[in-house]
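REQUEST FORM: STRUCTURE PREDICTION
Request ID: SP-0412
Submitted by: Lab K.M.
Chain count: 1
Length (residues): 64
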Amino acid sequence: MKAKEVRELSDKELVEKIANETLALDQLILNHAVSPLDNPAQIKAKRKDIARFKTVLRQRELNK
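STATUS: Completed
RESULT:
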């Protein structure tokens, strides 16, 4: 998800996205430990998405 798209989301949506993506990341890591993923770069992409969500949420907190 692009940063521009993330900024358009509400705070509530961002919190939900962070929770959902964190669960998805945990599942990917678990699956990768059991049997290698076809594309292990998915783990890195999920981490970056979560960081994007958290960054935008924190920027909004600081601007208030």
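NOTES: The radius of gyration is 13 Å.
Reviewed by: T.R.
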